[in-house]
Amino acid sequence: MLNRDINLQKKIEMKLKDKIEALSRFKTDLYKKDFLLTWEKTEEELKAVLDVAQILKDMRSENISPKVFDSGLAISQFRDNSTRTRFSFASAANLLGLEIQDLDESKSQIAHGETVRETANMISFLADFIGIRDDMFLGEGNKYMREVGKALDEGFAKGVLPRRPGIVNLQSDIDHPTQSMADLLHLKNEFGSLENLKGKKIVMSWAYSPSYGKPMSVPQGIIGLMSRFGMDIELAYPEGYELIPEVVEQAKKQAVASGGSFKISHSMKEAVRDADIVYPKSWAPYHIMQKRTKLLQTNDQAGLDALEKTCLAENANHKDWEYDEEKMNLTKNGDALYMHCLPADISGISCKEGEVDGEVFEKYRIKTYLEAGYKPYIIAAMMFTQQFENPAEMLQNILKKNRKRISD
Amino acid sequence: MLNRDINLQKKIEMKLKDKIEALSRFKTDLYKKDFLLTWEKTEEELKAVLDVAQILKDMRSENISPKVFDSGLAISQFRDNSTRTRFSFASAANLLGLEIQDLDESKSQIAHGETVRETANMISFLADFIGIRDDMFLGEGNKYMREVGKALDEGFAKGVLPRRPGIVNLQSDIDHPTQSMADLLHLKNEFGSLENLKGKKIVMSWAYSPSYGKPMSVPQGIIGLMSRFGMDIELAYPEGYELIPEVVEQAKKQAVASGGSFKISHSMKEAVRDADIVYPKSWAPYHIMQKRTKLLQTNDQAGLDALEKTCLAENANHKDWEYDEEKMNLTKNGDALYMHCLPADISGISCKEGEVDGEVFEKYRIKTYLEAGYKPYIIAAMMFTQQFENPAEMLQNILKKNRKRISD
Amino acid sequence: MLNRDINLQKKIEMKLKDKIEALSRFKTDLYKKDFLLTWEKTEEELKAVLDVAQILKDMRSENISPKVFDSGLAISQFRDNSTRTRFSFASAANLLGLEIQDLDESKSQIAHGETVRETANMISFLADFIGIRDDMFLGEGNKYMREVGKALDEGFAKGVLPRRPGIVNLQSDIDHPTQSMADLLHLKNEFGSLENLKGKKIVMSWAYSPSYGKPMSVPQGIIGLMSRFGMDIELAYPEGYELIPEVVEQAKKQAVASGGSFKISHSMKEAVRDADIVYPKSWAPYHIMQKRTKLLQTNDQAGLDALEKTCLAENANHKDWEYDEEKMNLTKNGDALYMHCLPADISGISCKEGEVDGEVFEKYRIKTYLEAGYKPYIIAAMMFTQQFENPAEMLQNILKKNRKRISD
Fold this sequence. Notes:
The structure is a homotrimer of 408-residue chains. Helices cover 47% and strands 12% of the residues of chain A. In chain A, the strands form 3 sheets. A 5-stranded parallel beta sheet of chain A has the order 7-6-5-8-9. In chain A, strands 2-1-3-4 form a 4-stranded parallel beta sheet, with helices on both faces. A two-stranded parallel ribbon of chain A has the order 10-11. In chain A, helix 3 links the parallel strand 1 (73-78) and strand 2 (99-102). Chain A has 2 domains: 3-175 and 375-401, Aspartate/ornithine carbamoyltransferase (Rossmann fold); 178-372, Aspartate/ornithine carbamoyltransferase (Rossmann fold, 3-Layer(aba) Sandwich), CATH 3.40.50. The first copy, chain A, contains 15 helices and 11 strands.
């Protein structure tokens, strides 16, 4: 190795050491706790997860393998379609040394009335983590995750399971913490620090979409998390497109407590004025989701069809809720950071009329990819901090071992 | 590490060493032999598999990784739905270092007429084990496994395959050895030793279920295995619900040879009297399975529907074959160990009327979870003993290496 | 270890060292280049891939593990059914230390209009390789792979991806390089060396099949590759069953340049005379594939049904294009090497009348299995040479480390 390379490597190592040192100062209680809702975690805990994610990302870039499991399963249970979250979870698990096993309910006997309690134990004899995505039914996803958690608690307490597998919420009806935390890490890197986010205006806005029934967990996750860091949050939607009231209440309280502000308004155009960050994204309103859940539960197809028709008609009244060039020009320097969890409904590209204008999206397209790229590391960090009581110490060990991800 | 911890670790190591020492005394011929039917194995061989399973389980509890494969595939082929067996196989393979690949026939060209012989070779170029579940057709599952075995023999002999992958029967039409061996390990631990099982009364009883067509491999596996260890076996079912005659004959012979007994009776209530262990579980009778197989083979849907109707009507005559509190009270001290392969048809919980009363099941629920928890280790032990000529020596090596499953 | 064993091991090591030494002399530019078409690679590059494949195969036989990745994903995307290619890709990835993740489009949001560009990046944050099989639409498969490649280029250039994942063509509309290269390695071993293939006559012949719409990528791959090594190639098919003209042109030019010859003829019986190697395999003709692609794209089911009917009727005029004993007897010593990518349509076995007579196939059956057995190593070699700038040096390192695949 050349001297130059040795020096470079030492510099990187020093930088990683500094980050780990900073991490070690946080007081956290993440160990052996499921990660279900960001607002159940302290700010220090959220910061610790961000830091671990960034360190794992840096390590991988430097060809250092943070494999801490020699074997073990990470089980994913998706009750909704997913490409990016599925691959993010698989990537995170693989990075740490766990093998992914999908619990595919259509393949399994769960479809035949097996209880949640039993299944949770049956799949977990050698499992370390369970990632669950369950966002289809209002009032169900979060409840289901906690039910699984209780079953695992019992299994561990009674000696059925050698350890209590940790749960990672990969999207529930209430929150989407792997998305919002990835978004926050993106913001931290775009603006330089969490400190720099204070006083920044972020607009979480409803946007028009030709489809219907999109979950509320992304906007709820965004307002529920960004309100922790002193930002000025504006939640904009057409009258009637409310989110779950309790989550909005929570976000309001948090915004004030963190030295920021929280405002609800009903015009995308007005809302984005002077915004530093915009997040235009469609969702189905709370009262519709309530009706929809009941119809789904009673399997009322005629009712569902009628509801969809009404909703699409109502949506169509708000086609001006597209994030276009005119609106972009109203934002801070005409260049607010555009965010999206992807895939976006892009006018003229993925649909005729949608959430965002094609040219505007193109301007920020790569940024949205970068945004998404944090998710695998956020998930890995959620696992890592659940696994190790002292994550900083373990990261230090990994750095010392310097195990190569790819042989060289 | 504290002195206390060092002492504890030494104790555990000593205990594991003792178990490995005991294992090393068995004379076995498990090396490079498929595991298809328990009655093809000697008692020493069965004991060796139980011991290896227990040692692997203890090692994992102590964070010792018994990974012996650096790479390699374990292929699972499920011709029937399965959650628990699928995850057990995946867990076992992963524990030893193999990656699972599902041979999903609906996805593959097998559905288009490819021969068994060819497919067996095509998937096995880098495979170490194939786990097969094929329990739907009477006279087919076991036959299919042997056909695959022969194809692999040929492939290895002719230089197509670098090694002969081992086969593990994950449930056939005849036997379900991973289930029955897990059940036996559970009994060994519940009663303290295999020796203690001598003279114990175990009742394998048919039970009512609102569904139809359940395979006979579980009851056959139970009587075929438990009859090896000097237990008093009572097989109870309503007249007409016979199992495969050859398997029952085999169990009878074995029971006598091992110093136990074997009895067939036709009342659950009478059978469970003074039982130490009860295993109430529904199955479809032999003569029905014969008819059903023919109808399935000729794709006679009308015939199948008619048969199902007749069977369900016949089943409904035996709703009193539910394991309830009254029957439980008749067992030894009113507390016979209740067993089930899960999922059970639980009256008032998973169905209106079923195999077992809800409160009775709840009393033994955790025990059935513990019972199921042995299966991954039984499967791993079946692989391990097929792989290594001297499993005790290899386990000793693993202990010496002390590779951690989770970094610490 | 006995002295004899030590000597044997040393011999094997010496032999492997010699092979690696030979490999190190090739000048190649495979590093960081996708493997899409064999005719984009130089002869030295093709030879290097063959050598790496053989060395990896030998290493595994000697229980040496060439695991070079400590973690990482190999993503497979199959837009057509597949058993053998799927398992070959999984085996190759696993051998090198990568975990397979299927991108199943029916499960993912891709089905809902997500763009190729975005998905390619979203799945690749921690991916090392993407294997794509897309052979259904003429003019699409190869195009799609290059589109994915460009998206990955952009993602890497813009910092979205920490590395540019390599692409392996697992079958496109134009070429099937993992198949043809496995076939070539088989020929090399059957005839002793690539040098020995010079002047050998290989007949790539259309053959009758009761099915319709089989891709042209296998015959195209064969003539596109075998024409590089001085063989006399005869492409035989009934009038009208043309392949893509550009590929045939390419093969012709190559045959001449390499000192061989290229001929098209229209009688299997005449073509196989004095052949050293025969490859009788059905395909759908170019002009039909053109029509079919249009009908598929416009979702014209009636048109497709009509086309199928016409084609099957046309096929039926050529049932004499079966490779039977009579034709076999016309080949060199009545014993030309029979090749097939499998599964073959075998008369009297997998169909009534097909590509090859049952007894003739049986004579060469094991050879076709051996042929298929090279594919996992060819795929691994394609990954290995894309990954390491100096594959010989890395193989030397692996040999020196002598990491065991199975603990001993």
